[in-house]
């Protein structure tokens, strides 16, 4: 088994057992990288990406196709269209679109990610950006899968909501508003897990009750879970609480409730 195989296996295993980790073990996991240096762009670990996002010190680029980004992306990540006339197997974002996004400024710090250690999209984009003169290109090569495995929630965009609602009959939609609001109207099929009843910590309060009464999909922790609320802050808080329970595919809608309701697909 390769170093990358071992790293990914360990990350996913440990991410499902957060209560057993001591501080030193958590430190090692959040500071891990894949060790891949093929593209020439340095790798950064999860902890550094979290710090850069919090500080606003980098432009995070999701190097995957638009729909994949729209369905779930790291909070704050941007996406640009594909390079023309490239087959899907060699997919790469268009450097010209990155130029337009950044206004031609080539000394901004960029962090690229895609679908994990074995995904080549961020590597190909890194190489092309450096060839085009970009001076500070980094990769989060562990990508979306490890971000989620370590408890990170993702953002879903409006076209992603439409796609999931229409195509994924197993997806669970969670309404984070108070029961009174939920009882008046909600997104079709949504279950209520109110932010006001979510307590700090793991396996406590309303989240524990939702695990026992079937609101959360306890028989398949990889089920796609989409959280929405009165606003994005409310939705994010509930999504983070759910992710702490080892659910691996949690996204939240960053817009308000009325915008969410408008996206319902008539089946």
What does this structure look like?
The chain is 39% helix and 10% strand. The protein is of the alpha/beta class and 267 residues long. It has a five-stranded parallel sheet with strand order 4-8-7-5-6. It has a three-stranded parallel sheet with strand order 1-2-3, covered by helices on one side. β7, α11 (232-243) and β8 (250-253) form a beta-alpha-beta unit. The chain starts with a helix and ends in a 6-residue tail after the last helix.
What topology does this entry show?
Blueprint: H1 3-15, H2 23-30, H3 46-55, E1 59-62, H4 66-71, H5 95-102, E2 110-113, H6 121-131, E3 137-139, H7 143-149, E4 154-156, H8 158-167, E5 172-175, H9 179-184, E6 191-192, H10 205-213, E7 225-228, H11 232-243, E8 250-253, H12 257-261
Parallel strand pairs: 1-2, 2-3, 4-8, 5-6, 5-7, 7-8
